[in-house]
TrEMBL record:
The chain crosses the membrane at residues 61-78, 108-136, 157-178, 184-202. It comes from Azospirillum lipoferum. This is Paraquat-inducible protein A. InterPro entries: PqiA-like. It holds the Pfam family PqiA. Keywords: Membrane, Transmembrane, Transmembrane helix. Coiled coil: none annotated.
Length: 218
């Protein structure tokens, strides 16, 4: 459900007035409106989301992020698939696949898989952990703004779900050629895909407004 933010001229309010929010796309000023959980406020001129009230509280989101981190560790520490062909068994983790791509002179693909399947999701989850822990402690430390900017920049590069789709297609195709046994990492990747969908739907910009209401943090 969405709620349009109330349009308003700047009137006598100063530029630093917390009641005002500027549209990041068209610069139109709006007055902040109270939102219920799950609601979004959009710019009346261009429709860009200005404010969003998440379904999840910070402590619930931190629990989801920790669960996603555990799934991430399992997904990368264990084999994704085990192939059995004529008595020989081979298995590989995602990192093994990246190293194999690198050794086979496909460095660009190896770097892309590493960045989109490993680095971006891990950096996103670690940054979210630090931000949520700070909010729950009632603080807004110096790294708060840089981490928020980092999340905004790396989110478009996280493509675990694309990787997951590729693994499932490969699994179906390989099942005609060899006996394919799904590994622990495959189930962990499925859990990670679902958890990441929830984590990525959380707009971390709303965290700016939470510390002020807790323990009077600056
Ligand atoms: Zn706008």
């Amino acid at each position: 459900m969405t709620a349009g933010a109330e349009a308003s001229p700047p009137a006598s309010a100063g530029p630093a007035d917390d009641r005002l929010v500027a549209c990041p796309e068209c610069d139109r000023l709006h007055v902040r409106v109270p939102l219920r959980a799950g609601e979004k406020a959009r710019c009346v001129r261009c429709g860009t989301v200005l404010q969003s009230a998440p379904y999840w509280r910070p402590d619930q989101m931190l629990a989801l992020v920790m669960a996603a981190l555990i799934a991430f560790l399992l997904a990368n520490a264990c084999p994704i698939l085990e192939l059995r062909v004529q008595g020989s068994i081979s298995s590989a983790t995602l990192l093994d696949a990246v190293l194999t791509l690198w050794r086979e002179d496909r460095q660009l693909v190896a770097v892309l898989v590493f960045a989109t399947g490993l680095l971006a999701p891990l950096a996103d989850l670690l940054a979210m952990t630090a931000l949520l822990a700070a909010v729950l402690a009632g603080r807004r430390p110096a790294y708060f703004a840089p981490l928020l900017r980092l999340i905004q920049q790396i989110r478009p590069w996280g493509m675990i779900e694309v990787l997951m789709l590729g693994v499932l297609v490969s699994l179906i195709k390989l099942s005609h050629l060899a006996q394919v046994v799904p590994g622990v990492a495959l189930w962990a990747f499925i859990a990670l895909t679902v958890l990441l969908a929830v984590v990525l739907s959380y707009d971390p910009r709303c965290l700016w407004e939470l510390p002020a209401g807790r323990k009077g943090a600056a």
